[in-house]
Design a protein that fits this description.
The chain is of the alpha/beta class and 286 residues long. Helix content is 46%, strand content 16%.
Length: 286
């Protein structure tokens, strides 16, 4: 399966069926290789993947990420086999442990230690069918232990909310032959104050989640830089902004650091599909 060099990451819960079809036409038409989507409070991951695959022709569809607490390992394996069997091998299963509020508060499960929980889940996936797996399995890996697990037990990693410095560390941890599909938020906007305002609004919900906060601290950001909506340095690192050439230069830093694929997430006012699509046009040739 070829993810391509560039993919698009979109928060699909905000889009109805018509908007999803329109998004697929834009992403596929601009030549992107993969469309990535999350699993949060809205669409169920596997059902949504089936819709996206049925309404596209060549795009790889990737879950970024399917919550391991939303379905057991046997079901995840059967989903991988079903989607790839019915849609020409175009589905990549990205898995993650999610966050305590989404697991305990929303789903009513106990949130176990992330690395042991993921290791047990991967063991369950392997036991749910004969090898080899029916498609790639990637992990939402941020810290060194989850990256080590991704290197040993999966096809690679799909890090989110990271910097090129993290990408370099992840590439070294994964080693050769692994997928490193890095998400990067972008805002093609030359008004820096406006771009930062959009970035702070987009990042606000992530800045309450310990998994991300702990990783940002590991990357060298201070607690002061993560307070009060985030410092300019932090926001500029999380959301690449400026004209298209400036944003493209920032994206290339991930490739130089060892990324094999970039998932770009356009940051706009909610519902501003015109700005979103213009960004996808501008960045398609990165």
């Amino acid at each position: 399966m070829q993810l391509g060099r560039l993919g698009v990451w979109i928060p699909t819960d905000r889009l109805d069926a018509a908007a999803l079809r329109a998004l697929l036409r834009v992403v596929e038409g601009r030549g992107y290789g993969t469309l990535w989507y999350p699993e949060s409070r809205g669409y169920e991951s596997v059902a949504l993947a089936g819709f996206l695959l049925a309404n596209s022709e060549r795009l790889v569809i990737g879950s970024s990420i399917a919550n391991i607490y939303a379905r057991d390992a046997f079901t995840a394996r059967r989903a991988l086999a079903t989607l790839n069997g019915l849609h020409g091998g175009r589905f990549a299963l990205g898995l993650g442990v999610s966050h305590i509020p989404m697991v305990e508060g929303l789903r009513g499960h106990r949130y176990d230690k992330p690395v042991p929980a993921m290791r047990a889940y991967l063991d369950g996936i392997r036991k749910a069918g004969d090898a080899p797996l029916e498609g790639p399995v990637l992990l939402a890996a941020l810290g060194p232990l989850m990256l080590k697990l991704a290197a040993a037990e999966s096809d690679g990693a799909v890090p989110y909310n990271v910097t090129p410095e993290h990408t370099a560390e992840a590439a070294a941890a994964l080693g050769p032959g692994k997928v490193l599909a890095v998400e990067q938020k972008v805002c093609v906007e030359t008004d820096k104050a406006r771009a930062r305002a959009l970035g702070r609004k987009e990042l606000a919900r992530y800045m309450t989640l310990p998994n991300y906060v702990n990783n940002w601290l590991r990357l060298g950001f201070t607690e002061a830089e993560l307070a009060d909506g985030g410092s300019d340095r932090f926001i500029d690192a999380m959301v690449l902004s400026g004209d298209a050439a400036t944003v493209q230069a920032g994206l290339r830093r991930h490739f130089e650091a060892g990324a094999t694929h970039l998932c770009i997430q356009p940051v706009t006012e909610e519902g501003d599909t015109r700005h979103r699509d213009a960004m996808l046009d501008a960045l398609a040739e990165t």
